[in-house]
Structure formats: C-alpha cells, structure tokens
Design a protein that fits this description.
3 domains; globular; alpha/beta; Rossmann fold; 28% helix
C-alpha cells in the first residue's frame, strides 16, 4: 500500500474537485428529493403522506398529485416538506414537484407499504431461497414495487441513499429480500391492492446498530457496551498504524507465497472496517434507516437476533427500545411491528441443555407483552441445523403475513402460535395451560408429544413424557423426577419438538421457570 505525500494528496483533492465541477452536478438551488421518492413508488393508503426535499432559501416549492396542490418553503438546511391528504387505492398517479426546476414522478401507486428489516435472514435474496427458478418465472406483479437501501454504516446522519423504486418482474425480484417479497406477494394477492416494500436489511447486523446512540446512552442500561466501543474508537489511530505495518508484512508474505505456488496468508483485518460496520451502535440507524424515516408506511417486518444471542437477556430491553424508538421517530403512532423468532439451528442435543438461542427466543416473545401492535412468527420447525440461513423463506413469510392479514386487515384467519399461559403442580406431574390455540392442539408426525423437559428443585432437567388433556392443557412428568417444579418446551438451539395448533402453527418455545440463564450477565 503506497502512502501519498502531502503535496500529492492536495493535487489529488484538487483534481477530484475539478472533475466534480465539470460533471454538471446539481447545485443546492435545484429542487431535490431523497431517493425514497421517485417514479414507480407506492404511497400508503388511508393516511396523510409526507413528501420532503431540499431547495434554495426562499424558493417556493409546489407539490401536485391528482387534485391536490400544496406549497412549501425551505426551512433550516434548505429542507421543505408538505403533507398529502389521503389518496384512494390505485393509480397510476403522477407526482410533480416544481420550484426553479421540475421533478416528475410517474406511475405512482397507492396501496400498502411495509419496511422489511433485520439481518441476513431478511436480506437473504429470492435467488437463494427455495425454488428460485420457479419463483423467478412467476414474479410478474406490476403492482408490487421494490426498493432496497444500500448497507451504509456511519455515525453521521444520512438524509439520502442510492436506490430507486422498481416494479416486480422476474429480472428485478432476484436480489430482493425473499422474506420481504413473499410477504408482500401474499398481501397483494389477498388484498388485491398495490404493495410497496422497502428493504433495508443488513446481514450480520446487531440490534444496537439500528438505534440512535444518544438514546442508548440515555437509557443507562448499555454503558458497558458503549464503553467498549468508545475505547475502540479512541484507539483507532494506533490500530490503523499497526494495521499498516501488518499489511506491509502481509504483502511481502503474499508475494513469497505466490512465487512458491502456495496459498496466500490471511489478510489482516482493517480496523476502519468495524467503524463502518453493522455492529457499531447507531451505524445502521444513521446510514440506512434515517433516510427513510417519515415515509408513509403501514408497518414493519423484522428478522434479526442471531447476532445478539450471546446477550439475550439484554435483548429483552434492547429490542423493545428499538421498536419504540422507530415508532417515535416515524410519528405514525404505534404502527404494526412483526418479527420472526429465531429458527432451529446447530446440532440436535439428545438431552435437555442450556441455550443462548432459546434465551433470545424468549426475549423476542416477551416483547409482545411490552408493546402494543407487535407479533411473532414462530419458525422453530423451519430451520436447518447445518445452515443459519434456512432456505424456506416462503413459509416464514406466510407466518408473518398471517399476523398482518389478521391483525391489521381484520381477516378471520389463525395468526398467533399457541403460547404458554400458566402451570399447576399435581403430585409428581405438572399441568401446563396454553393460550391462543386456534382450532386446538395436535402433535405432528408421531402421536407422542416431543420436546418437553422437567426438573426438580436441583434445576437439572430431564426429558419428560407429556400428553394432551382438556383441550388446552398438557400433562408433563418423568419417573426420574418425584417432586417437579419446572417445565421447558423446545428449549434448545435445535430442539426436537412436534406440538402445533391444528392450523399448523408451532407452539411457541417456553419455560415455566425464571432461573438465570447462560446470558443473564452478558452486557
């Protein structure tokens, strides 16, 4: 890696400036909007919709659509905003924004708009899901519109991004979020309205990267997490110098390996990469979420948690904080927020064991009791032990869509997985009562109930026998435990379990105890 001298750096900077001036880039006097507005976009039905952008000081901006015509003048930073009155479902409309120049956005539809967010399992594209060839052939939905926000990690608030709305076709669907697309397709086919999907997922991302850093600091619960990052940030100049030396040595070693026909040694990691990455608190909030905040939406779907499993107890507060902060910033009230519980993953264990993944699932389930208009799609049966990215995104999306179709759109369909309600000890057995049963409970594949464990006061769990009684109750016991005090179900990274509602929704993993878990002290 060759280092520039001071004079070389100045000349390079001047050359870049000259090229920018010659390129005819628009100046601030031009009326401009962020990329979230454009031709082929979908505006949310049934509510007022904000449209904003930038213009020169004092410039009057006129926004027109259908029979509406609104005007605004820029405020601080040249930013202007108008609020459209609700539009009827359908289109296409033309949205015109006029100042010293004119912007014309054609083929604008009005329907349902959803944010599709999270980490790699939400980012996982259609061309890597089950049956990508068939999905591609049938992706002919001109009234489903897609836009993807690039992965930008930064501590500086971004107001725009590089992207554009496109209609769903076999060519455009390939690299879009599979869960997002299949969810949107189900809504479109069921409701017969246009659907807009905003995908900002980032593989491997941690929940704290999606939250305003000032808010994290204000909470007072994440001081150790923030302190670790502050120390790393303060040490960055020294780390960069160390990296440069390591990189120089690596170049020499790589050349020697090449000359000897040997594999190159691993390249040393650049510490600046973590500063722009998907774990640093607020990085994604600033870089990928903030440019879309305020755009009219119906709600959000979320698939994340793998990166926070080692701090599952912390996630009990962190995840609800994230949801609430998004709602506060969007200023659209308590909009629906539905997530995917972690799938089964890693090796099946023959005996009951501790599990960080089970604790993260528990934290996700707890969120439904802390915030309104939230819901959880349980997929404890859809994972792949050998792959953290299960390819069956179709069924994942259907379980999310059930929540939206029932909860938001008021269709009479089953949507919530059966949930633990209470327990009662009866001699050497424990009777567990479940809620949200749908049409009732039934085991899958074999008649025997699988996935239950039971323990006494010593907190040592053993595999239990179980049977259904009285419709919504399960009798659990083991001859090895004479005085049981606690029951767990599907409590493992990759549990063997088989209890469902009769509509095919798996029982939510649960435990009746509150004994400290393996992530209880992780910060």
């Amino acid at each position: 890696m060759r280092r520039m001298s001071g004079s070389q750096w100045i000349m390079a900077t001047l050359s870049c400036l000259a090229l920018t001036l010659m390129s005819g880039s628009p100046v601030r006097a031009d009326v401009k909007t962020p990329a979230i507005f454009g031709s082929h976009m979908v505006l949310q039905q049934g509510q007022k919709n904000r449209v904003w952008g930038w213009a020169a000081d004092g410039e009057e901006v006129t926004v027109s659509i259908d029979k509406q015509k609104l005007t605004a003048k820029p405020g601080a930073g040249g930013r202007w905003q108008v609020e459209l009155e609700p539009l009827a479902v359908g289109g296409p409309y033309t949205l015109t924004i006029q100042g010293k120049n004119t912007l014309t956005f054609d083929d604008v539809l009005v329907g349902e708009v959803w944010i599709c967010s999270g980490q790699s399992n939400m980012q996982w594209s259609v061309n890597r899901a089950n049956d990508p060839d068939l999905e591609r052939l049938t992706a002919k939905f001109p009234k489903i519109r897609l836009i993807t926000v690039p992965n930008v990690g930064t501590q500086e608030v971004q107001t725009d991004f590089k992207g554009a709305w496109t209609a769903c076709t076999p060519d455009t669907v390939d690299n879009f979020s599979a869960v997002g697309y299949f969810f949107g397709r189900q809504l479109h086919q069921t409701l017969d309205v246009p659907v807009g999907l905003i995908n900002n997922a980032w593989g491997g991302s941690a929940c704290e990267a999606w939250i305003n850093r000032d808010l994290l600091a204000k909470e007072g619960k994440y001081d150790e997490l923030l302190a670790r990052w502050k120390a790393e940030e303060e040490n960055l100049p020294m780390a960069i110098e160390e990296y440069k030396d390591k990189y120089a040595k690596w170049e020499i070693a790589a050349k020697e390996a090449k000359d000897k026909n040997l594999p190159a040694p691993p390249m040393p990691p650049n510490p600046e990469g973590r500063m722009k990455g998907n774990h640093r608190p607020a990085n994604i909030y600033n870089g990928a979420l903030k440019p879309t905040v305020g755009y009219g939406i119906r709600g959000a779907i979320w698939y994340q948690g793998e990166s926070n499993a080692g701090r599952a107890y912390q996630y009990r507060d962190l995840f609800p904080l994230m949801i609430k902060s998004w709602r506060d910033e969007w200023q659209q009230g308590e909009f629906p927020f539905y997530w995917v519980q972690l799938a089964d993953f890693l090796a099946e264990q023959p005996e009951p064991t501790v599990s960080a993944w089970a604790e993260l699932r528990e934290a996700q389930t707890m969120t439904m009791t802390k915030l309104k208009n939230t819901g959880e799609a349980v997929i404890i049966d859809l994972g792949e032990g050998k792959d953290i990215h299960p390819k069956n995104k179709q069924d994942v999306a259907k379980r999310l869509a059930r929540w939206a179709l029932s909860d938001v759109y008021k269709l009479p369909i089953a949507h919530q997985s059966p949930l633990y309600q209470s327990m009662e000890k009866q001699g050497n057995k424990i009777i567990v009562t479940l809620d949200h049963l749908g049409g009732g409970l039934a085991p899958f594949d074999v008649h025997q109930l699988q996935g239950f464990a039971i323990a006494g006061e010593d907190k040592k769990f053993v595999t239990a026998q179980a049977k259904l009684i009285d419709g919504n109750k399960i009798e659990v016991w083991s001859d090895a435990i004479k005085d049981p005090v606690a029951v767990r179900y599907a409590w493992a990274d990759n549990p063997v379990c088989n209890l469902y509602s009769k509509e095919g929704l798996p029982v939510t993993p649960f435990r009746t105890d509150d004994w400290p878990g393996v992530t209880a002290t992780a910060k």
